[in-house]
Design brief:
Number of helices: 7
CATH topology: Rossmann fold
Structural class: alpha/beta
Strand order of the largest sheet: 6-7-8-4-9-10
Distance between the termini: 40 Å
CATH superfamily: P-loop containing nucleotide triphosphate hydrolases
Number of domains: 1
CATH architecture: 3-Layer(aba) Sandwich
Order of helices and strands: EEEEHEEHHHEHEHEEH
Shape: globular
Number of strands: 10
Helix content: 25-40%
């Protein structure tokens, strides 16, 4: 196999496909073993659909998002992703807001980078901030915000430009369950309006059931289960039923500790 994977470009509005993807990181300490983050991962995210990835810490979830975004090219295998010119939104685990820009400035910067003209970018930034409840801090700098506010601002920045591909890494980790449900609904509305293909990493089973059509369970860098989750509305009876099924799949894929 070639030392680096092949990035095959799909049509601009296409989905994602991982075929036999592996990723090994060299040891940071001389003499230590290499770290196998991904080992033969294969699955597909159809255009306009939403897929969640769940699994324990260190299972390779964030590595898949980095590869999907084109930020990591040191993998083996093949990745099919939307081609050049596709607008990609990415919400990282840490907010990564630019500290020298205001909250509005962070969104406007992302919108301008995606090709929005300045007046439209400002209007859209203010509208999105209102939708996530951040209008009162629109002129504030990231350092003055709470952790939950920073995460909401980062999420707003990710979907503000109506991206064709939306990548989310633990997008609601810093907010409470009520806020997470509200943001799930807002994110679903924005993704539907943009016709976005969504790949989201989460530790919260209920989030996967609310956001995703399908959930991929990973462990030790491998896909060990796939469950149809069906995008259930927060609070609906279907969420509890699908969440129970997904928990069983996760439990079945988790090795039992010997006593």
């Amino acid at each position: 196999m070639a030392p680096h994977g092949a990035a095959v470009m799909a049509p601009a509005q296409g989905g994602l496909r991982f075929a036999g993807v592996g990723r090994v990181f060299a040891p940071e300490v001389p003499g230590a073993a290499a770290v196998v983050a991904l080992d033969g991962v294969s699955f597909e995210v159809a255009a306009g659909s939403r897929t969640a990835i769940v699994g324990p810490s260190g299972a390779g979830k964030s590595s898949l998002l980095h590869i999907a975004a084109g930020l990591d090219t040191g993998y083996t295998g093949t990745v099919v992703r939307p081609g050049p010119g596709t607008v990609v939104g990415y919400a990282f685990q840490d907010h990564r807001l630019l500290p020298w820009l205001t909250v509005t400035g962070n969104l406007t910067f992302a919108l301008r980078a995606a090709g929005w003209p300045r007046p439209a970018a400002t209007d859209r930034a203010l509208a999105v901030l209102a939708s996530v409840g951040l209008s009162p801090v629109a002129a504030a700098y990231p350092a003055t915000l709470s952790g939950g506010m920073r995460q909401r601002a980062a999420l707003a920045r990710a979907f503000a430009a109506r991206p064709a591909l939306l990548l989310l890494d633990e997008p609601f980790a810093a907010v409470d369950e009520e806020q997470a449900d509200e943001l799930c609904g807002l994110l679903s509305t924005e993704a539907d309006a943009a016709g976005a293909t969504v790949l989201v990493v989460t530790h919260r089973i209920r989030e996967a059931c609310q956001l995703a059509d399908r959930t991929v369970v990973v462990r030790a860098g491998r896909v060990v289960a796939e469950v149809e989750t069906g995008r259930h509305q927060p609070g609906s009876a279907g969420v509890d039923q699908v969440a129970a099924r997904l928990r069983r799949a996760v439990a079945a894929a988790t090795p039992r500790r010997s006593r």
